[in-house]
Each structure stands twice: as structure tokens, then as C-alpha cells.
Specification:
Largest sheet: 7 strands, mixed
Number of strands: 24
Helix content: 10-25%
Shape: globular
Distance between the termini: 53 Å
Radius of gyration: 22 Å
Length: 529
């Protein structure tokens, strides 16, 4: 695991594969892998003004003779879905070392336009995906439709939300964590939408199988093929409530598990090779560079944050326990430690510099970025419980870190700031105040923390209502429906529509609008539309 020579070999192989492309399933599933090597679908991600990442993964688990070999995959990018007007084409290498995944980093495309793409291997062709580039740096596009979603436990529901999000035709999808869940199917299956036969994930093969399971869902495949995504992780891609290098059970075994989980995450997401980290790192899978920014011309600057990899452990959590839980502040002095961080010191400095740059440009009208977006895993605003307990896994468990970010927003205010989150399986809409818990303090930003795609909330609406009454900055709090968020962004306003499925137990469920909120340019704080 800690062999630098192996690390350099893998890095060189990834870079080499990308360079050539430039100018066991353990369950029954409806597609025969033997006849469809592209049964896991296609995806694209992290668009820039002249390019985007294309992704696929060859599904070869039922063909052992092919599993140990590298394979050359062809790719094509075209203006049209029939590929009569091909713009670029090339080859990429699907390495067994990377689970036969393919990451093609396109450059040289035109800014601000849509493309079609596909992969070819042998006599097979992948589904056709649709992707796009970001607008040119100096452009101010009239609109951006942004989808955001998180938390899609397989057993808890079907992915009707993804089918509807694809139909909503987003320009970009932000996935905010918990793409997979590490659990085996519960023994009692009476109240589950569906089951699987995979064991609790602990090895690289286990995690690869888990991604293959989720990616076998046609609605999720359709959402990936509909638009580029930008992805970040949370805890269940590895283990519930893990914190940096600390998890449940034996410490050394957990680090081995984390290495496997992080590798599988990279293999199965449309990420750039830059995510592999600096060459000086001891082992490539001991760190992934996930916090990053994407620009959408002068309309939006999206900062994707990583609150798992660099954090301190949860306050007053017993070592190697199953979950973080909640504490009483009076009984947990560690909670108030001013040095504790959720993002890590380096990421905090990076984000503060990004915000300072946005603030400096905010006063220069011709070049000002309208919307600064902080896309992260969970709810940022406080949730003070009537019981007096403080949950320790999210921002409430790291109050000093939240204060530092609020101070950065106050000292270097971007023109408009919106925070997006997930994790809690509930829809929360909040005003973000300069002083948490003090509603008379200035409003610095707006927050939309979205519900889950399928994962259950584990609470009741009565309890959520009681929390909302205890927190005057909370404008909406709902726990009873699954779905996604849709943000329609213009230079003048941000409109968030919270979309919820009628019945997550049904793959064909209809969808409706739970609520809609508007943020006006240079008027922080959501208002119900």
C-alpha cells in the first residue's frame, strides 16, 4: 500500500492513458455484461471552458479471461447524437489496476456549448452521453440550471428522482456525497424497496461491486448521461461517520479499508487525474485532491469542499465506535476547542483566498462574479435541538471552524454567497447569519440543504418542526420526502426549487414541487417565491 514506486507507476499510467486521448456483479441485473461491456453507463464531469472529463468503466466481471488485461477503448465527441459531425476522437487505456475505468480529459472544445460523446470497444458501443463546456471566462451567461442531490442508499428507494432530474435538463449536476452505502442488505427486508446480495464492503473488490450495483440503475445512468457532474464524497463512500484517518475498529485495518474505498471512488467518478494528488505523497490512495473550484463564466464560481478527509475527529467520540452521536456542550470541553477544523487548515486557507478574490472582484462591475457557491456535504447553519444536545459529525460539532468561515465571508464578502449541502436526508432552507444563533446579526448568505435521493431520514416531522421553532434562521424544514434540488441562476436572481417524489418505493413515481425560494442579487437570504 505504501510503495512509492507502485504509486509512480500508477500515476504515470493514468497520465499516459489521458495523454493518448487528447486533439463480479454479485446480483442478477437486467443487462448481460457478456454482451454489453458498457452496462455501467457513461458520465462526464468537471467542465471547463474548453473541455470536460469523459468516464466509463468496462464491465468485465463475468469474463475472467479479460479481467487481467488492459484494453484500448475508443471514444468520440460530436456535435450531433448520430455522430455525423465528429469533433474529436481518440483512444484511452482501460487498466485492470484501475478497475478498467476510463477517464478522458478533453481540451480544445468550444466554450459554452453542448456535445455528444460515446465509447467503443470491440463491436460494442456505449450509450450516448450529452455533456457541455463552461462559458468562457469573461462571458456572463443569461442562465445556469444547476441540479444538486445526495444520499442514495440502494435498499431505501428507487431512483425516480434521477429520472426526473434528467428530464429537467440541468446544465450541471452537483453530487454532494453518499453515492454508495457500505452496508449489506438488512436481515429484515419487509420495508425495503429492493435488496442486493453484496456483503458489507471492506475490500477494493467490494467497493467496486457496490459502485457497479448503483450504476446498474437506469435512472441514475440517464442522469449521468444527461449533463456533466461535479462530485464530492461524504462518509458512506468509506464508512459511516469516519473522520480523516479514524474509523471503526482496528486502526490499521481501517486505513486499509479507506485506501480501497478511495481508490474505488476515483475509479467510478468523472474526476481529473489532478485528483490523484501531488507526486510527493507517500501513496496515491492515501490522499485525493477533491476540494476545487469550477467557474461558469462570470455568472457562478462553484467551490467544492471536502469535509471528510482533513477534519479533526468528532468531539468526545469514543475511539473506534460505530457513529459520532450527539453531546451536551457542558459535558464536552473538546467541542469548544478553537483549533478544531472540519475542512483542515490548508483547505480553510484555500477557501478564504477564493472568497477574498471574489470579494475583490465584486467591486469591479464589469468582471464581477455574480454568485459564489459553496457546495459541501451537510448543513452549515446551526440546528439547536430542544433537548440541548449537539450533533458532532457536522458543522455543529466544529463551531470554531464555522466561525472562521463566517468571519471570512464578513471580511471579504463576495457579491452573493449560496451554500448547498446534503447528508441529513431533509430539506432545510436557512438564512446564514454573521453570528450563529443571533437572528438580529447581519445575513451573509443563503443556504439550501437538500433531502436525499432515496435514503430515509430516520426522524419525524414533529421533531423537525420542533427544531425549526428553536432556530429562527430556519425558513423551511421537511423530513418526509425524497428528491433533489434545482437551482435556476441568472445575473439578477437565484431560484431554488425543491423537487420531491411521491413514492420512493416506486421506480415510476411522479414528482412535485415541495417549495420554491428566491435570492435576489445583492440581497442575502432566501425568500419564499
Amino acid at each position: 500500500m505504501h510503495d512509492p514506486q507502485r504509486r509512480r507507476f500508477v500515476q504515470q499510467a493514468v497520465v499516459s492513458a489521458a495523454a493518448t486521448t487528447l486533439p463480479r456483479w454479485a446480483w442478477s441485473n437486467p443487462v448481460s455484461v457478456a454482451t454489453d461491456p458498457f452496462a455501467l453507463g457513461v458520465a462526464s464531469g468537471d467542465p471547463v471552458a474548453d473541455g470536460v472529463v469523459l468516464w466509463t468503466r468496462l464491465a468485465l466481471a463475468d469474463q475472467p479471461a479479460l479481467m487481467q488485461s488492459a484494453h484500448t477503448v475508443r471514444w468520440e465527441v460530436a456535435h450531433d447524437a448520430r455522430f455525423a459531425q465528429i469533433v474529436q476522437k481518440g483512444e484511452a487505456t482501460a487498466l485492470p489496476l484501475l478497475g478498467h475505468s476510463v477517464h478522458v480529459e478533453l481540451r480544445g472544445l468550444a466554450p459554452g456549448r453542448w456535445y455528444h460523446y460515446r465509447f467503443l470497444w470491440g463491436g460494442a458501443a456505449s450509450p450516448v452521453g450529452r455533456t457541455r463546456t463552461a462559458p468562457a471566462a469573461g462571458d456572463l451567461p443569461a442562465t445556469l440550471r444547476l441540479g444538486f442531490a445526495s444520499c442514495q442508499r440502494w435498499e431505501h428507494g428507487h431512483y425516480a428522482a434521477w429520472r426526473h432530474l434528467a428530464a429537467d435538463a440541468p446544465d450541471l449536476v452537483l453530487f454532494l456525497g453518499d453515492y454508495i452505502y457500505e452496508y449489506a442488505t438488512p436481515k429484515s427486508t419487509a420495508d425495503l424497496a429492493r435488496t442486493h446480495s453484496l456483503r458489507h464492503a471492506s475490500t477494493l473488490a467490494d467497493y467496486r461491486d457496490r459502485y457497479a450495483l448503483h450504476k446498474s440503475d437506469p435512472a441514475l445512468q440517464a442522469a449521468h448521461a444527461a449533463a456533466p457532474w461535479a462530485v464530492i464524497w461524504d462518509d458512506h463512500e468509506v464508512q459511516n461517520d469516519y473522520a480523516a484517518g479514524a474509523g471503526r475498529g482496528d486502526a490499521a485495518q481501517f486505513l486499509e479499508l479507506r485506501v480501497a474505498a478511495w481508490q474505488a471512488f476515483y475509479e467510478n467518478m468523472p474526476l481529473r487525474a489532478a485528483a490523484l494528488g501531488a507526486p510527493a505523497a507517500e501513496s496515491r490512495w492515501d490522499a485525493l485532491q477533491l476540494f476545487r473550484s469550477l467557474r461558469w463564466g462570470r455568472l457562478a464560481h462553484i467551490h467544492l469542499l471536502d469535509s471528510r478527509q482533513h477534519r479533526h475527529g468528532q468531539a468526545c467520540r469514543a475511539p473506534h465506535t460505530a457513529s459520532a452521536g450527539a453531546v451536551r456542550a457542558a459535558d464536552c470541553a473538546e467541542l469548544a476547542d478553537p483549533t478544531r477544523t472540519l475542512l483542515g487548515a490548508a483547505q480553510e486557507r484555500w477557501l478564504q483566498a477564493q472568497l477574498a478574490d471574489a470579494a475583490a472582484n465584486a467591486t469591479a462591475a464589469p468582471s464581477a462574479t455574480r454568485w459564489s457557491v459553496l457546495a459541501q456535504q451537510t448543513q452549515f447553519s446551526p440546528r439547536r435541538y430542544p433537548s440541548g444536545l449537539t450533533p458532532t459529525d457536522g458543522w455543529d460539532g466544529y463551531p470554531a471552524a464555522r466561525t472562521r468561515l463566517l468571519q471570512a465571508l464578513a471580511q471579504h464578502p463576495p457579491r452573493n454567497t449560496v451554500l448547498l449541502g446534503g447528508d441529513i436526508h431533509q430539506n432545510y432552507v436557512c438564512r446564514v447569519h454573521a453570528q450563529p444563533g443571533q437572528p438580529e446579526s447581519p445575513v451573509l448568505a443563503s443556504e439550501f440543504c437538500g433531502t436525499s435521493v432515496s435514503s430515509r431520514s430516520g426522524t419525524t416531522q414533529d421533531k423537525v418542526d420542533a427544531i425549526a421553532r428553536h432556530n429562527p434562521h430556519v425558513l423551511l424544514a421537511r423530513c418526509d420526502q425524497r428528491g433533489y434540488g434545482l437551482a435556476d441562476i441568472t445575473p439578477q436572481r437565484w431560484t431554488t426549487t425543491l423537487r420531491v417524489v411521491d413514492d420512493p418505493m416506486q421506480a415510476g413515481s411522479a414528482v412535485s414541487t415541495q417549495a420554491r425560494f428566491v435570492v435576489e442579487d445583492q440581497r442575502p437570504g432566501p425568500q419564499r417565491a
